[in-house]
C-alpha cells in the first residue's frame, strides 16, 4: 500500500463541521491511549499526521484525515480516561455517539482494544453499541509487541471469545511498534471496501 498524500482536514466539534463530501469514512474507535492515532500514522506511514501522546485523553475532537482523496480516517476521542472529569467523559461520550449516529458516510469501524487485557466495561458497552448500529466493524487487538509473539494468536482468540462469541467479526492483532501486521490490515480494509481502490 502506498499512500501518497494524507492530509489533516479538520478537527470537528459539531456535525456541521464534518466534511460534506461523500468520501467513505473509516473510523477509529477505542478507549483512551489504546493507540488509535498511532494506528493511523502507522497505516499511512507518517510519523506525525495524527497527534499522539503518552498522556491519555489527547484527542478531544473528531479529527478527519483525507487519504489521497479516496477516504477519510476519522480519529475519535478515546473513552474511559479516568483522569477526565465525569462531566468531560460524558461530553466525549456524547460526541462519539453524535458522530456515529449522524454521519452518513461511515464505511468501516476499526475498533481497537488492548491485546494484553480483558476488554474493559466501557469496551463492552462500545461493542454492544456498535453491534446495534449494524455498522461494518473489525476489531484490532493492539499493542501486540507487548506480549510474546508466540502468544499473539491465543490472546486474540481469547478476546474474541469474550467480546464476540458468535465469531462473526474479524479480529486481528496489530502493533504500531512492529509493522509486520500492516499489510494484513490494509488487505482486510480493501476486502471490506472493494470500491475503494486504494
Ligand atoms: P487518545 O487520543 O487519548 O484517545 O489515545 P489514542 O488511542 O489515540 O492513543 P495514541 O495513539 O496517542 O497512543 C497512546 C500511547 O500508546 C503512546 O505513547 C503511543 O506511543 C503508545 N502506543 C500506540 N500504539 C502502540 C503499540 O502498538 N505498541 C506500543 N507498545 N505502544 C503503542
Ligand atoms: Mg488519539
Give a description of the structure:
- It is a single chain.
- The chain is built from five helices and seven strands.
- By secondary structure, it is of the alpha/beta class.
- Strands 1-3-4-2-5-6-7 form a seven-stranded mixed beta sheet, with helices on both faces.
- Strand 5, helix 3 and strand 6 form a beta-alpha-beta unit.
- The model has no long low-confidence stretch (mean pLDDT 92).
- The structure holds guanosine-5'-triphosphate and magnesium ion.
- The site of magnesium ion has 5 residues, from helix 1.
Provide key terms for this protein.
198 residues; alpha/beta; seven-stranded mixed β-sheet; 7 strands; binds guanosine-5'-triphosphate; binds magnesium ion
How much of the residues is beta strand, in percent?
Answer: 15-25%
Instruction: Identify the bound ligands.
Output: guanosine-5'-triphosphate, magnesium ion
Q: Spans with pLDDT under 50 lasting ≥5 residues? A: none
Radius of gyration: 16 Å
Amino acid at each position: 500500500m502506498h499512500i501518497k498524500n494524507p492530509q489533516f482536514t479538520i478537527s470537528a466539534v459539531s456535525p456541521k463541521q464534518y466534511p460534506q463530501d461523500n468520501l467513505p469514512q473509516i473510523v477509529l474507535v477505542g478507549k483512551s491511549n489504546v493507540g488509535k492515532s498511532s494506528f493511523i500514522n502507522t497505516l499511512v506511514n507518517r510519523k506525525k499526521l495524527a497527534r499522539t501522546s503518552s498522556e491519555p485523553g489527547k484527542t478531544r475532537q473528531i479529527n478527519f484525515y483525507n487519504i489521497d482523496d479516496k477516504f477519510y480516517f476519522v480519529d475519535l476521542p478515546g473513552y474511559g480516561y479516568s483522569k477526565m472529569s465525569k462531566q468531560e467523559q460524558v461530553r466525549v461520550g456524547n460526541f462519539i455517539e453524535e458522530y456515529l449516529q449522524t454521519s452518513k458516510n461511515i464505511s468501516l469501524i476499526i475498533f481497537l482494544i488492548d491485546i494484553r487485557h480483558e476488554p474493559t466495561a466501557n469496551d463492552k458497552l462500545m461493542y454492544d453499541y456498535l453491534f446495534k448500529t449494524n455498522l461494518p466493524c473489525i476489531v484490532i487487538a493492539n499493542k501486540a509487541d507487548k506480549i510474546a509473539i508466540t502468544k499473539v494468536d491465543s490472546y486474540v482468540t481469547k478476546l474474541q471469545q469474550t467480546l464476540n462469541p458468535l465469531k462473526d467479526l474479524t479480529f486481528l492483532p496489530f502493533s504500531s511498534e512492529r509493522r509486520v501486521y500492516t499489510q494484513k490490515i490494509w488487505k482486510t480494509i480493501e476486502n471490506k471496501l472493494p470500491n475503494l481502490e486504494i
